[in-house]
Amino acid sequence: MPSKPNILLIMTDQQRCDSLGCYGSDFVQTPNVDSLARDGIRFDNCYVANTICTPSRASIMTGKHLPGHGVYRLHDILPSSEKLFTCHLQDAGYKTALFGKLHVSGRSFERENRNLNDGFDIYEYAMNPHDVGGTYNSYAQWLRREHPEFFKTLEQEGRNVKNIPEDAHFTTWSAERTMDFIRKQNSVGQPFFAFMSVVDPHDPYGDYPIASLNYIREDKIPEPHGISEEDVHKLPDPIIREHEHSYLGNFHKYDMQDIKEMRKGYYASVAFLDKQIGRVLNCLKELDIYDDTIIIFLSDHGDMLGDHSLLIKGGYFFDECTRVPLIIKPPASVPYPSVVSGLVQAYDIAATILHSAGISPDVIQKAIPDSRNLLDRTFLKTCRDEVYCLYRNTGIGDERTYFSPPNHASMIRTRKYRLSLYHNAETEPKGELYDMEKDPLEENNLWNDQMFAHIKADLLIKLCNWLTAQEISGLGSRGGEMFPDKSQWLNLNAL
Known about the structure:
Oligomer: single chain
Strand order of the largest sheet: 4-3-5-1-6-7-2-8
Number of helices: 17
Shape: globular
Radius of gyration: 21 Å
Strand content: 15-25%
CATH class of the largest domain: Alpha Beta
Number of domains: 2
Structural class: alpha/beta
CATH architecture of the largest domain: 3-Layer(aba) Sandwich
Number of strands: 12
């Protein structure tokens, strides 16, 4: 392994684990990501710190949970004092480049401003395929130059554009710019960090190139589960309220054919995404640097796609939202297990990348003490005992929207159970408890089952202790009512 290996990070947006063949899907063809998984490590239980873009990406790129960086909501701005892990790579002699979406701060901020410590030598930023405005929009600049007629169409129609041509697609642009950068850096011999950050398979689901339908089995795409009237009424009120305020609206305003079309478009986007990833991987192989390049593939969060009568993402912690694909291909000369079933957090990739780049362990420990090195074979034997996900009054429907009462939620996931607590000062705490081994679809909420009262109590204590520690050590005050009302702490014993 070179002392400073090249590193490629591929991040997708809103991608579920079941959208990939290597995670068990038989209705969408993903041969390139599947091949990457065969060459590397597939993590089966990687969880995000938050279920929407901005806080999750801030965690991934800083190596910290939400209280550590102070970004809790869609429109929050990453504090200027916070550094992305790429800053440390620059200090270590890496050439760093971004091609696509960053979103560690609110969209309205990043369209016009760069984050002070983003750590990128080359900053080709773009938010999504439908927004062609803003000072920073390298994709729009490329479109205006290379595809002027389609640029005009996109400018006029935005999210209503269907079946974007392959050669004009955001993901194609990101892949081509990533390959150009890799070729140039290989010729000069400087180690590189390339961040290919795409928006697929994020909604609106219909912008995939039409040929991508050839790579899915529409007849085999499963219908959503947990959608009966009885199932819906089992959901805690905060989940229902959150969903009704989302930008796609309530699941039940759509008929099943609408939902099927959403799911078809989602998986067609995944197939197209896989094709473009294959081009980048082939580029590394043609340059004979694939074996010695560390490649990381993950997503920032998932998508409900109608499961549990919920759409997109929000203040709910079902696996469809919180568990994401994570694949790490280490250098070929270093043996690792092919599959890791232990619990990890998505922001663990920060420490993983910095350790791989030869950054001092002392520096890493001081900068991001909660991030873990996923290429540490000792750690991989057991991984984390539990993982946490937080949601704080985000308002995904509108950057200025707040729910009344606000939706504050906290999740702890152990190897066997998932507990979620919905809490704010205006309402009594509510929650969920699922046995993830016996009930992987999370359809039997055990919160009020007295046979599991002791398990609920133990998990609540762990969750509350962790939140308290985070409040003491982090930037909790930036999140408004970041933690449960103090009186509610006292009431938790009665739960």
